[in-house]
Amino acid sequence: MIEVTMNVPDTLAPKLRRLNQWLPLTLELLLAGFKTPTAQTVTEVVEFLSKGPTPKQVAAYKVSARAQNNLRRLLALNESGLLSEDEQHELDEIELLEHFLVMLKTQAQEQLLGKSK
To answer: Are 18 and 50 in contact (CB under 8 A)?
Structure first.
């Protein structure tokens, strides 16, 4: 792993400190280039992580009802063969976001298990 040092404004430093252990995955989320309504869900996840959640809170995290309903809609359209090209792109982005969330939750679970030993 490479260590990166950077200068940030004094007002940004406390926010980055709260991200602490979640910063690498948060940066990956932000750099993934989400361009559909999924970007709103990514923003929700980043806002959650910026509050410095505990591993237990990360393990229990769920996206908003709005995001879950949107996923259900896309899956129903996909199942019926009515998914547009844009909707397919959005479904692909949701899959990528889900991958990041699984990684976050796995990391949190590992930390919780490590603390219980």
So the answer is: yes
Of 89, 62, 63, the C-alpha closest to 74 is 89
User: Position 90: which residue type?
Assistant: E
Domain extent at residue 69: 38-116
pLDDT tens per residue across span 52-71: 999 999 999 999 999 999 99
Interacting residues of 111 by C-beta distance below 8 A, sequence separation 6+: 21, 55
- C-alpha–C-alpha distance, residues 48 and 57, integer Å: 10
Closest to 62 (Cα-Cα) out of 15, 4, 53, 117: 53
Q: Is the pTM of this model over 0.85?
A: no
Specify the DSSP class assigned to residue 36: S
55 within domain boundaries: yes
d(CA 95, CA 89): 10
The single-letter code of the amino acid at 111 is: Q
Is it the case that residue 25 has pLDDT exceeding 80? yes
